[in-house]
Amino acid sequence: MISREHRVLIVAILASFVAFLDGSIVTVALPAISREFGGGLVLQQWAVDGYLLSLGALILVAGSLSDTFGRVRVLRIGLVWFGITSLACAVAPWGSALVLARVLQGVAAALLVPSSLALITSTFSGAAQARAIGAWTGWTGIAGIMGPVLGGILVDTLSWRLIFGLNVIPIMVTLVLLAGLDEPVRTRPAAPIDAWGAGLAALGLGGPVFALIEQGRLGWASPVVFVPLVVGLLAFAGFLWWEARAPHPMMPLSLFKIRNFGVGNIATVGFYAALGLGFFVFTLYLQQVGGFSATVTGFAGIPATAMLLLFATLFGTLAGRYGPRAFMTVGPMVAGAGFLLLLGAVPPIALWSQVVPAVVVIGLGLAITVAPLTSAVLGSIRPEQAGIGSAINNAVARVAGLVAVALAGTIIGTTLDVPGFQRVMVVVAGLMFAAGLASWLGIRTSGPVLAPEHPE
């Protein structure tokens, strides 16, 4: 008989796994999608950012829903909706329909990620919580890296459309396991939904992202680019103003006054912006410039997957024992060095000598960082704030990746080539180093990372 704790951990991992898998599996299929629908780099960016846009904009509302109505109920709704939208992606008849389905899929993902992690933090405590978070971050990190492996095989042997149909199996398994978990319908009295905050956040993210992606095609002087950029920036400023005054804010700004929470989210920006941009361009580069198949490109990420699988839980446990600061400093530095090693990957690209060693180093950096980073952020707030705290941190991570991918065209230019790829790798390494430096300067540790009774 499986214990409740083990069931919670498995459910949390599977629920987040499909969300993170779908965020990464699409990258290896982008050249095939572009060949079928056209659209070039712009469609490729939208296929990734459409998902991240709705995920980043709504994950904060979903975190509040998780705290208010219960993790189990929100997870169940998210899983069903994710399955429906995955099938919509699989049967999309044209590019714009695929992008729309990806946007709707991101809405479902917003329900899955914070609820699954909050389920862990409300079930486990102390060192057991650190180990559970380590397992969660390890497996969800693996989903982000192994997505291109599965996607590559499906693209080359069957069809890119099956990368979305793949979600149905883990969703069904998770729903069965979820049926065995009991939880009160509400964990606290229901609070009004912050509709103004959600609307301003969506507009504040959507406008600049639209401008960043479309400027390569239309130019910055075009009103179609300039107007959404200005409106979006004003909306984002309005979002921050509103959240500081709203009676029930979806992003309580007071949490950022807690040192490790605030600094941890700053480190999250650099770390996940680097990952989003780095792996997006790396995957396209191996296929479109290196001439490798989707399958080979996907397998090129296996060394990073192996490093995460082997070491993520270990570093999560060590962070629970010694504190996260050292790991959050060293990990991004190691990953940044790995991305710099990819500067030597020029055609004719030798996978074993130019790519694999760099990916191993990147994977080690990820394994060192992901669990301690999550522990630092969530360990600094009260347990009853776990839902909104994890939602904010995940929103920061997704928005960082969203904006970074939108910037890809600005850094690369109109066509991905060797100089463009090398510029991206330098930018990515710089973001990683900045995340490590911020952690060293800002994170504070005194013994194991435990949530304080009252935020300061």
TrEMBL record:
It is found in: Cell membrane. Its main location: membrane. Pfam families: MFS_1. It is a multi-pass membrane protein. The chain crosses the membrane at residues 45-65, 77-97, 103-121, 133-154, 160-181, 193-213, 219-242, 263-286, 292-315, 327-349, 355-379, 391-412, 424-443. Keywords: Membrane, Transmembrane, Transmembrane helix. PROSITE patterns: MFS. Residues 8-447 form the Major facilitator superfamily (MFS) profile domain. PANTHER family: EXPORT PROTEIN, MAJOR FACILITATOR SUPERFAMILY MULTIDRUG TRANSPORTER MFSC. This is MFS transporter. It comes from Cryobacterium sandaracinum. The lineage of its organism: Bacteria, Bacillati, Actinomycetota, Actinomycetes, Micrococcales.
